[in-house]
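Record type: monomer structure entry
Structure origin: computed from sequence
Chain ID: A
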Amino acid sequence: MNYKKNYSHKLFSVLAATAIATSVTAPAAFANSNDIKNSATTVHNKDEKKNKNFDLTIMHTNDTHAHLDKIARRISAIKQVREDNSNSLLLDAGDVFTGTLYFNQYEGLADLEFMNLIGYDAMTFGNHEFDKGTATLANFIKGAKFPLVSANVNFQQDANVKNYFNNRIEKHPKDGQIYNGIIKEMNGEKIGIFGLTTAETKDISSPGPDVEFENYLEEAKQAVKEFKKKGVNKIIALTHIGYNDGGGDNDLTLAKEVEGIDVIVGGHSHDKLDQPVVVNAGKEPTVIVQANEYSKYLGTLDVAFDKKGKVVSSSGKLIDLDQKVNNTYVIPDDPESAQILETKYKPSVVEMQQTVVGKTTVDLIGGNPPARTGETNLGDLVTDGMLAKAKTINPDTVIAFQNGGGIRTSVSAGDITLAKIFEIMPFGNTLGIMKLTGSEIKEALEFSVKDAPSAFGGFLQVSGLKFTFDSRKPAGQRVQSIDVKGDGVHYTALEPNKTYVVATNTFTAKGGDGYTVFAKAYSEGRVSEPGFVDWEIFTDYLTTQEGKTVHPSVEGRIINLAD
């Protein structure tokens, strides 16, 4: 491939992400809002031509979760954007940790080598950075050739990290240190960058008792105030709190409640914001971006500030790192990065894929059509594992749903390897915990069986619940009975007006497969996203079984009365 000829800045301008199985664009729920716009060119000022504006390009990643097989293309894309834009920043909004065998083997240090190689300017902490405790996190921090920022995480009492922690805004930040925020100077202009991390971390990860998560709104206000005192009027919040996450903190609320933030570079909710979202809730607009997940995209935002630091124009796009033409990646591998990955890191990961994690004494049935038409023993096993994991996060969780289309294949009796688990669950969907009324659950189950006995990828495998339906009846009138195992032992009839805590994957929770009832709950902030990936949940569940051996049978959780 002729790199210069085929891989130009002009090409980047037309790269657009195609919706994929694991993502739904969240801003659709806000299309009619007066204070939120989703536009390629979002705000303008009539004096823009008169005043000399400061143009900045922000490249951003989030929730990459150790998906290093794409890293050489990401680095190529970063190099090209830098070549085309003299004023640029490269930021990461957290959750570099956890998600593939690269993390299991190297605990974030493989990712760090590549982040250091390409020169990130700053990163904030995601909740998964704490999954292995602060000792593992400390190894990552001390090796970083960039600063980390989080204004609402206090490490002063943590023995592993306190020596890297600086509870202040810093004009001259050092690599491998943590600050509330930093000031970057570029062509004489000061840019403030501060971080925020979801307070859910203490419940959904393992930060330990000595790490304190402070109120994100109060700390954001304080950070903006400190930046203003230091003469900074262009302020970026680098956040891992979710775009519209239901866990108690999110970017939309931040933009509305805290005056003075110009740009929010977000993560945690894995939202695919194809274009910037602009919130006009205060005196000046706030631009929000997020780049989906798993290093599928490099996010870019071009923003212009007037002399007073107000955003006067913005445009952005997601550069699709997986796009192909004639079966060849549009973005080629960076040779140096590809060589490091192939020789230093990948061999051990390939070897790990053959690891036996458990055994089954019976065939585990999934795939199409079995998992898309009725209950299967593998569907039961997957949802039981999901429910068990969700209960460790929210003990009130009583039900789990898994779309049958996410159980891609069957497993023959015998050893279960990690490679086989990746075949069952290739998408890397993450856990979501919803609050739904009984009537909403019934609506979802009616949608689940609408095509029965024909296959439907959204057919729900279930745990903690059993129901009957009659496929001879009209769609929407098929479900005949629903019972919930509310105490974990006994089934009782579903109550339409009662609220239940339900686990599923975030693809389904955001409305995937057409579940508008779930999308509504998500848009109303009733979905928490702890973010544990499906294959790891399943693997962990297998290892808890006696002798790491399973022999599930179909239990009558889903019965078609027409059979």
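Annotation 1: The CA atoms of residues 434 and 527 lie 4 Å apart.
Annotation 2: Residues 1-49 have pLDDT under 50 and may be disordered.
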